[in-house]
Amino acid sequence: MSEIIGHNYIGGARSAAGSLTLHSHDASTGEALPFIFSQATVGEVDAAAQAAASAYPAFRNLSANRRAEFLEAIATQLDALGDDFIALVSRETALPSGRIQGERARTSGQMRLFAQVLRRGDFYGARIDRALPERQPLPRVDLRQYRIGVGPVAVFGASNFPLTFSTAGGDTAAALAAGCPVVFKAHSGHMATAERVADAIIRAAEQTDMPKGVFNMIYGAGVGEALVKHPAIQAVGFTGSLTGGGALCDMAAARPQPIPVFAEMSSINPVLVLPEALQVRGEKIASELVASVVQGCGQFCTNPGLVIGIGSPRFFAFTALLSTLINEQPAQTMLNAGTLHSYRNGVQALLDHPAISHLAGKAQQGAQAQPQLFKADVRLLLDGDPLLQEEVFGPTTLIVEVADKAELQRALESLHGQLTATLIAEAGDLQSHGELLPLLEQKVGRVLFNGYPTGVEVGDAMVHGGPYPATSDARGTSVGSLAIERFLRPVCYQNCPDALLPEALQNANPLGINRLVDGHYQRAPL
Amino acid sequence: MSEIIGHNYIGGARSAAGSLTLHSHDASTGEALPFIFSQATVGEVDAAAQAAASAYPAFRNLSANRRAEFLEAIATQLDALGDDFIALVSRETALPSGRIQGERARTSGQMRLFAQVLRRGDFYGARIDRALPERQPLPRVDLRQYRIGVGPVAVFGASNFPLTFSTAGGDTAAALAAGCPVVFKAHSGHMATAERVADAIIRAAEQTDMPKGVFNMIYGAGVGEALVKHPAIQAVGFTGSLTGGGALCDMAAARPQPIPVFAEMSSINPVLVLPEALQVRGEKIASELVASVVQGCGQFCTNPGLVIGIGSPRFFAFTALLSTLINEQPAQTMLNAGTLHSYRNGVQALLDHPAISHLAGKAQQGAQAQPQLFKADVRLLLDGDPLLQEEVFGPTTLIVEVADKAELQRALESLHGQLTATLIAEAGDLQSHGELLPLLEQKVGRVLFNGYPTGVEVGDAMVHGGPYPATSDARGTSVGSLAIERFLRPVCYQNCPDALLPEALQNANPLGINRLVDGHYQRAPL
Could you tell me if A87 lies within 8 Å of chain B, comparing CB atoms? Predict the structure, then answer.
């Protein structure tokens, strides 16, 4: 196990110029861990951004194959982080070791997926319109387009996935794949974990001879503002709260040169339980749904926070069963004291609301989160009550009963943008509620059938995104290979000599990639 | 010729609820034309946005083929606008009829290009990861992704291309192709033109049975703010000034639900004239460059506003020749009084600057724009003087002489983002200045070789975009078929029954499109 020295990572070296220090904590006991982290000074934030800017010209111009090798080396390094690492992450986050092992595999798998994307070459978006010198009334020039990385990217990770959505997580992987050097702001909830992962990335960068500054990491509270405002930074990836993401968006928009922010923020992930499904398998649904609500102490962006059903004796029984099951669920330790504090406040706000009733769950007290079940009057949804649109991060969910199909439609229309929506439905339900699907599609990034939204597959077809406030830009995803597109921009060459063109656009097609040539896709050389 | 009644276009009907009226003007004489336009009231702006929102669910769900038929019908209607239309546009803009005829063909051609994109089907971005029920440690669910239109789009056209960048221009075409209904803010510089074009679009919508509200248009000064802030609007397309675009970006970012703005704003389009090219064909370059500077009275976003060369007796002679040629160029009428006013101010600011010298051009006076040539000390570029980064919209350009290759590199590094950069170079120049190309690629959307940036081909490979302030989002283009991507977002289906999937994602692949299936592109059914 490499020593944890707590210095910032700048341009391939370590730096601790400031006097402010930070501690990481044991998430279960609150005890400070024996590591000291040096908060980055303004000068160090600047140096980290400059290091990324210096690496950019060389890194973006590396062949896709070289970048793929770098990502694969990171994956190997991540896989090699051993039991001591798993124990450390567990200690900082209170997440069980099995979960961390799975997350480690998912994080290295994600790196390998982006390596595949690089080798496949479709991320180039290569397009060629050949010259038409005889065209009337005007000849056509030769035009060739491909995509390049936008520049250095600032990444802010999440507390709830200390590996997959953090230091070497999806945003970092997507940015590096795109050819964008990264400055990562280490999450204050797992700084020792961040250091071990950053070490793994740096080892991989050295092994594969990447430019210094391809990956940088800074520690500290409040250092993110200077990072987002730094002129060298060209895009931001963020996973966290609506407040945090909104603040970054505002900073980015107010820069002399505004830059895009891809923030994944807040979603309540409605689950619609339809009548036939209730009839056929109500008990099974209740137990699966409760398992999804309390899984990982409910600390998922895709946690089902809203359950909607059509009023009936069967739905009444289903609600009663959910109550019984929620009452049986044990309290769990949350990621850190701040998360528990927010959960307590969120639960209290629901308890205090006159049109929301508390159905199940022990009184929230002590150092752990108690699972809770609430029921809200549908009018709150229809009238746009903000409390029903806000994510309560933790093991709680809220039932809304609608009178009929028409009210269900109106309730869904009143929802804000979501990461996911789920239909628990039999074939007959789907037939009689055909109008729901187009509406859900307009509201969310992912529509699930007879599953539960917790569990986000990393692949080509995944969308972990959706309309605001689920994310700040519905046109992206922060999970899956499409995430690379957020950090690419097109460049066009007009009448460029073949030898000077990037390989992706040369006549001979040396990369063997699929290209749109004169309106048709082909791999053949020209 | 249909009558021009000057009412707003809302949901397929006409509306003139307000009392404020506007006139259009003869651009050459300043005389008011005999048409009255009714400024949209707040209620009418709301109604237009609501009409677009009402059309959205039906319009976005039409087959791509149906939308293609709509775009082709618009193209046919545009082509059928006759000589009286050409004369009207000329009168409102002072642009010659030959230019307007060319622009009409370009605008209908653009509609047909997007129809091709719709039929090709790659805009769907269809991706399928099939279920792997046996996968260890966890099975993989079936995931399928495609892209849908983001929702109603507000479009603001430009004055300088009354057809191609206006009512039925690239932003409108891209949005409609994506399945997004449009609310167009008629440009105050050519409202009669806008009405004739809107009529053409509405005729096409009726012919092809599009939902009412697929295209709406409002007249008025200041009505854009209410439009951009309207909750139904989901994205904005804009072509115009940095001030105007910046204001829209700020409004969009400050909405309760922030939305993306694609603003094409300000570019000075540097042209680098390298030594061997000067030696081989200096006179030819000078006459071509001057022709590009004064073409269309310099009223192009891609007008070459900065000419950079390495100091030498030959560059000195080239500069002298440019001066002679500029002095020979006649004054021209600009698009409108406001444009001339801005040009006059821009020229005066250059004249007033102590480190900028005036090389050629008659004193700016009267109702027409006089072509001008200036020379600035390279230090102004290196020190980031804002005057050298600002577009002066009109027939003027500015020479900067650098001492050597190293200073050329530094001068280019100091440039802000641009739509284009041009290399006028012989093979030997390119060999000895290889370091320039990667740098230019980082600064611009399009790099030209031995051509001139005025003249933007509409095709698959064009990029009319670039880093800020050329545009507000370097990841898009406002010309060419890639422009559709600005208005699309991905949606993912998890374990969706085949019959309920959109056609693009069904097993049988009824659209016959290319899809990424389990990591490989294929057209075969599953």
Answer: no
Report the pLDDT averaged over residues A51-59: 98
The token duo for A416 is 């804000």
Contact A457 B249 (CB under 8 A): no
Q: Clarify whether B301 is annotated catalytic.
A: yes
- Dihedral, A409, A413, A419, A421 alpha carbons, nearest 10: 0
Instruction: Please give the Cα distance from B503 to B484 (Å, whole number).
Output: 20
- 3-state SS record for B11-58: CCEEECCCCCEEEEECCCCCCEEEEEEECCCHHHHHHHHHHHHHHHHH
pLDDT confidence tier of residue A1, bands split at 50, 70 and 90: low
Q: What is the CA radius of gyration of chain A?
A: 25
Minimal-distance CA residue of chain B relative to A113: B519
Q: For the packed helices A313-328 and A275-294, what is the interaxial angle rounded to 10 degrees?
A: 20
Q: Name residue B267's amino acid.
A: S
Instruction: Establish if B115 touches chain A: CB-CB under 8 angstroms.
Output: no
What is the arithmetic mean of pLDDT over A167-172? 98
pLDDT above 80 for A2? no
3-state secondary structure A175-196: HHHHCCCEEEECCCCCHHHHHH
And the tokens for B299? 């009223």
User: Which residues have C-beta within 8 Å of that of residue B136, sequence separation ≥ 6?
Assistant: none
Half-sphere exposure (CA, 13 Å, Cβ side) for A7? 11
**Catalytic residue check, A249:** no
User: What's the confidence (pLDDT) of residue B97?
Assistant: 96
A 468-487 → B contacts, CB under 8 A: 468-469, 472-475, 477, 482, 486
Any B CB within 8 A of A363 CB:
no
- Does the CB of B490 have a partner CB in chain A at under 8 Å? yes
The answer to whether B120 faces chain A, any CB pair under 8 Å, is yes
Most B CBs within 10 Å: which of A492, A498, A515, A520, as the mutation test of the B interface?
A492
**Nearest CB to A445: which of B150, B486, B491?**
B491
Whether B1 shows a pLDDT value over 60: the answer reads no
Question: Is the CB of residue A451 less than 8 Å away from at least one CB of chain B?
Answer: yes
- Which residue from A74, A446, A451 is spatially nearest to A288, judged by alpha carbons? A451
Q: A429 to each of A243, A277, A344, how far by Cα in Å? A: 38, 7, 37
B28-76 pLDDT, tens digit per residue, is 999 999 999 999 999 999 999 999 999 999 999 999 999 999 999 999 9
Q: Residue B137's pLDDT band (boundaries 50, 70, 90)?
A: confident
Asked casually if ipTM beats, i.e. exceeds, 0.95, the reply is yes
Q: Chain A neighbours among B 273-302 (CB < 8 Å)?
A: none
Q: Which residues pair with A397 in a beta bridge?
A: A373
Chain B residues whose CB is inside 8 A of the A521 CB are: 122, 514
**How far is it, in rounded angstroms, from Cα B38 to Cα B21?**
5
Q: What is the band of A443 on the pLDDT scale with cuts at 50, 70, 90?
A: very high
Q: Which pLDDT value is given to residue A390?
A: 86
Nearest CA in chain B to A472: B258
A438 to chain B, any CB pair closer than 8 A? The answer is yes
Taking Cα atoms as reference points, which of B198, B195, B186, B197 lies closest to residue B158? B186
For residue B291, what pLDDT is reported? 97
Q: Which of B72, B264, B391, B401 is catalytic?
A: B264
Q: Answer whether residue B276 shows pLDDT above 90.
A: yes
A34 CB neighbour count, 10 Å cutoff: 9
pLDDT tens string B2-37? 689 999 999 999 999 999 999 999 999 999 999 999
pTM of the model: 0.97
Q: Which residue has the tokens 């069980």?
A: A96
Query: Which of B:339-358 have CB within 8 Å of A?
Result: none
pLDDT in tens, B431-444: 999 899 999 999 99
